Amino acid sequence: MNDQMMRDVTPALLEKRPNTYTFTKSLAESLLFKHGHDLPIAVFRPSIVGASLREPMPGWIDNFNGPSGLLVAAGKGVLRSMIGDVNAVSDIVPVDIAVNMLVAVGWYAGTKRSQSIPIFHCATGTINPVTWGDLCKIVSPYLWEYPFERVFRRPNFAFEAKELAFTYWTYISHRIPAWIADIMAKFVGKQPIMQRNYVKLEKAMSTLQYFTKRGWTFKPDNYNMLLSELQGRDLQEFSFDVRRIEWDSYFRDFVIGVKKYLLKEDPSDLTAAKRRFKRSVLLD
């Protein structure tokens, strides 16, 4: 099957699913439920995985997927508008919390036999919720306090619930500034790249919009049961208690982690960064 055929059949295969990632996860689960009842297995479902809470260090992140890519684009002043429901729960879970719970799920599946394959949701929404609107309010001042290098415009990101408003701000805040920037680049003999970058950005953000427009409720029954099974040192070493997440400090560390681990910028050298940041703000 060639690439064109794959593109043609993909929408029919996905049906209402947003991408091939969720489709393949669903496909794998269906195979387990059909053929895996005699095996010591369990299904582990993390929600949107973000930077670490504590391990290997606060704010550690190594990819631009999901919320980390959103923070980079917003912090660079490139992303200013996105479709989303400010009242919907974002359901971000730190990566080390997810890893700890995955280890515990493996232990449980290997030592406790169930009549059916258990499903474990690793999520924060029903226990320690933070909405997309909360995320914007918390993150925005930290994008100014710990500015990224070489910003395009000042960070000023917001979710828009209505398609019409989103389309309007896409042109006002994204496409027109990109067009102006490319004209200026040509004028000084540089390669125009901003319009091309915005095409890539909008494609990347469209994969996240499916989740920012919606909220889900994941039952925490098995989560609570598994947490109660941990005792003593195991509870200390592999705790995945999301009630311990303090969102303000978590997102501060997330912003610093994006700056340090993804963008490879020195978060301790803020004086020069803030000076350059202020110059870019004056030009905005």
UniProtKB/TrEMBL annotation:
Name of the protein in question: Fatty acyl-CoA reductase
Keyword Membrane: no
GO CC aspect terms: peroxisome
Organism taxonomic ancestry: Eukaryota, Metazoa, Cnidaria, Anthozoa, Octocorallia
Positions of transmembrane segments: none
Species of provenance: Paramuricea clavata
Residue ranges annotated for the Fatty acyl-CoA reductase C-terminal domain, each copy included: 174-265
EC supergroup of this enzyme: oxidoreductase
GO biological process, one term: long-chain fatty-acyl-CoA metabolic process
Entries under InterPro entries matching the protein: FAR (IPR026055), FAR_C (IPR033640), FAR_NAD-bd (IPR013120), NAD(P)-bd_dom_sf (IPR036291)
Catalytic activity, as annotated: a long-chain fatty acyl-CoA + 2 NADPH + 2 H(+) = a long-chain primary fatty alcohol + 2 NADP(+) + CoA
